[in-house]
Design a protein that fits this description.
This protein is mainly α. Helix content is 64%, strand content 6%. It contains 21 helices and five strands. Strand 4 and strand 5 form a beta hairpin.
Length: 505
């Protein structure tokens, strides 16, 4: 008997050590794939935005918490503290996002164990999150797009625990994580209806959980009150937002595309890889859902379905008044997709054990292709390369003309303490009439460009990036082509430089 218990004890210890080693390996793998290529892409406009907001005066940061239209006021003071510790380099600032991305891998593992109660599905789900090109991409960006998913995972894990064991600490975590989430991104407020349905659909909800759940859901309205006034007005008014109009089907396709293959680049080969990945990952998620139904685990499917579908449906409805959809805003719903896909993979592995090596090789190939693409292809605008070219080819007295104007902040980040002046903003020409026509034309551009360039008749550099946001008809460049002589041009990913000389130059 003693020998039996001794063997059993050794077996248990050995199993625990093995599990600990596997989990550690998974986290180190998640860390490695995120840090190796952390700064291969240049900073783009949104990241420089966040850098500027983090260094704004403290009184402005405080005012931003109640300022209408301001998104994610909480993340700026957090990043400010991180910059004070680590510096302002792209690597240092992005490392902050990397940490939350790696922590999300650990959280999806422990949430998956609670929710799915199936080792295979949990491991596959965590594996997919670890190597997801989409999640790796946003773990390498100076924004809140790993911080918010981490908070959503934490809130739902705490809610899962609170439904079964309604201890006050779990309700406090639900309340705290949810509040931090919607102060970190405006659309994270959609997590609240997901939590309400998650709680209502829970099959093993403790009778005493009603008191804590009702209290927390009621208390969530208190920190949300400063935001609800202007957000409600924003949702009810017809408005132009600058986002493209998407149908519900296009939203679903865009999300599935990103979650399956990461950030797209052009080319027939990559289009085929993308299509293959979409078919496989969507098929796995559907297989996972069908398997849950087949095993009479509809309550798990219902909760994952709420997490996955409710935010998309609500954004689609809100977009009827003015489009607000972009896929990264719903990155915190991606874990539901990976949990379903992981469940599908586990089912296929049990169905035919020999499928496991083939499935692993296929996923490694698809995820590896996505990670390679994002690491090797310049996708974000290459403003650092543009700055280097300007440093060697521009006379310090030559003005820079920005189209769009905001990109002067991006270029200034790379200029650092070096002098970038003089510079000017190119005119905006995209104002629309009620019938859809344009309010201004070439006469307006002629007046504005004559005024802007009057002090610089000899030469000007046009910094051209995302110009359609400011000048869809390319009137500014057309005016320069007509009144100046093109002397030099160079094209980088996402940004082009044009040097124009006066006709007498």
């Amino acid at each position: 008997m003693l020998k039996h218990h001794t063997k059993s004890g050794y077996s248990s210890i050995s199993h625990s050590i093995k599990l600990w080693g596997q989990r550690s390996l998974l986290l180190w793998l998640a860390y490695a794939v995120r840090i190796i290529t952390l700064d291969t892409q240049g900073l783009w406009r949104d990241e420089v935005d966040q850098w500027r907001f983090a260094l704004a005066p403290l009184h402005e940061m405080i005012q931003n918490f109640t300022r209408p239209g301001w998104n994610g006021p909480l993340f700026s003071p957090m990043l400010r503290g991180w910059i004070a510790l680590t510096g302002e380099s792209a690597f240092a600032m992005r490392y902050f996002s990397l940490l939350w991305g790696v922590l999300s891998v650990a959280l999806i593992y422990i949430l998956g164990r609670r929710l799915l109660n199936e080792n295979g599905a949990v491991w596959w789900s965590a594996f997919l999150v670890t190597l997801s090109p989409y999640l790796v991409w946003y773990a390498q960006e100076v924004k809140m797009y790993t911080w918010v998913p981490m908070l959503a995972l934490l809130a739902l894990y705490a809610l899962e625990r609170a439904c079964i064991t309604p201890h006050p600490r779990w309700w406090v975590i639900v309340l705290g994580a949810t509040t931090l989430a919607f102060y970190s991104h405006i659309l994270a407020a959609l997590l609240i209806p997901v939590e309400f349905l998650w709680f209502w659909l829970h099959p093993r909800r403790h009778p005493k959980a009603w008191k804590g759940g009702g209290g927390v859901l009621a208390m969530l309205t208190l920190p949300y009150l400063p935001l609800v006034r202007w957000q409600t007005r924003l949702l009810l008014e017809m408005r132009e937002t600058g986002f493209p109009h998407y149908t519900l089907g296009q939203m679903v396709t865009t999300l599935t595309n990103g979650w399956s293959t990461g950030i797209n680049v052009s080319g027939l080969f990559w289009e085929r890889v993308t299509l293959t990945a979409i078919i496989i990952f969507a098929g796995l998620a559907i297989t996972g859902g069908i398997n849950l139904l087949r095993r009479h685990r509809w309550h798990i499917l219902a909760r994952l379905g709420c997490w996955l579908c409710i935010p998309v449906l609500l954004i689609w409805i809100a977009s009827m008044r003015g489009p607000i959809f972009t896929d990264r805003y719903l990155i915190w719903a991606a874990p539901a997709f990976y949990l379903l896909a992981g469940t599908g993979l586990s089912f296929l592995q049990r169905l035919e054990y020999k499928l496991a090596p083939l499935l692993l090789a296929t996923l490694l190939g698809l995820n590896g292709a996505g990670l390679y693409k994002q690491a090797q292809y310049p996708i974000k605008p290459q403003f650092e390369a543009a700055m280097i070219y300007l440093e060697s080819h521009r006379d310090p007295q030559e003005p820079l003309l920005f189209q769009i104007p905001y990109n002067q902040h991006v270029l200034r980040y790379y200029y650092g303490n070096r002098v970038m002046e003089p510079w000017a903003e190119a005119p905006f020409t995209n104002w629309r009439l009620p019938d859809g026509g344009y309010q201004v034309g070439m006469d307006y551009v002629n007046d504005e460009m004559t005024r802007i360039l009057q002090p610089y008749p000899d030469s000007v550099w046009l910094i051209y990036s995302e110009f359609t946001l400011w000048d869809e008809r390319a009137l500014v460049k057309g005016w320069l082509d007509q009144h100046y002589r093109l002397a030099d041009e160079v094209h980088f990913q996402g940004v082009s430089l044009y040097q124009y000389l006066g006709n007498d130059g």
